[in-house]
Write a structure and sequence with these properties.
This protein has 225 residues and is mainly α. It has twelve helices and three strands; from the N terminus they run αβββααααααααααα. It has two domains: 112 residues, Winged helix-like DNA-binding domain superfamily/Winged helix DNA-binding domain (Arc Repressor Mutant, subunit A); 106 residues, no CATH class.
Length: 225
């Protein structure tokens, strides 16, 4: 930036701060009668902006940075209003729209502090949906949560809260009971093998599979299947 340009910027002043008629709660910032940014009232107060304040290059940078974060927050909120999303999903979508990575991180941090972005809540909703019509074991549920961008530790905690050992067996039994009528024509080893495969695909652990399948199929037949 040339010395002349820097001098011009330093001489400029905030000429007006007024409500945005189209967006309640937001204020338009004017410099020499031109709109340079639109920010939430709280951000204007935090930046201590005031009419006739000198529009220095430093102040301009602060306002521009805040406007960029504000744009991320508003776009993220529009996405969240359409469907629940994890932070990782949001980072990907906002990155695709050209937002700077650091700006995205700060915007999403703000949404997390407000409780608008909550990976744990998304995870709990997912587990409820995944098990509503068809039972599933811990391994599958953790895999599904991680695929949406949750950390493995968080996914395991959520699934652990949802499934105790007894709950896992109850869910496995419910799934077996749904499938058994279609397997009545099978011999015991085949029935055991198919039930075990079903439970394995739904993410149940080996101990649960042996316990549940063994309860409906002769143990000797199951172990030899």
């Amino acid at each position: 930036m040339s010395a002349d340009t820097s001098s011009t910027l330093d001489m400029a002043r905030i000429s007006d701060i007024s409500p945005d008629p189209r967006r309640p709660g937001r204020l338009r910032i004017f410099v020499d009668e031109k709109i340079v940014a639109t920010l939430g009232r709280s951000r204007v107060e935090q930046l201590s902006l005031s009419v006739d304040q000198e529009w220095t290059s430093v102040l301009r940078q602060h306002v521009e940075a805040e406007a960029a974060i504000d744009a991320v927050v508003r776009q993220a909120m529009r996405m969240l209003n359409r469907r629940a999303m994890t932070r990782a999903e949001m980072e990907g979508k906002l990155g695709e729209r050209g937002h700077d990575q650091d700006v995205v991180a700060e915007g999403l941090d703000r949404l997390e502090r407000l409780g608008a972005l909550d990976d744990a809540q998304v995870g709990r909703l997912m587990v409820a949906q995944l098990t509503r019509d068809r039972p599933a074991g811990a391994a599958l549920l953790v895999e599904k949560l991680c695929a949406r961008g949750l950390s493995e530790d968080l996914a395991e905690r959520i699934v652990g809260d949802h499934l105790s050992g007894d709950d896992a067996e109850a869910s496995a039994r419910a799934l077996v009971e749904q499938r058994l009528p279609s397997l009545r024509h099978c011999d015991p080893p085949t029935r055991a093998r198919r039930l075990a495969g079903l439970l394995a695909r739904r993410g149940f652990d080996e101990q649960t599979i042996e316990s549940v399948v063994g309860a409906v199929v002769e143990i000797d037949d199951f172990e030899s299947a």
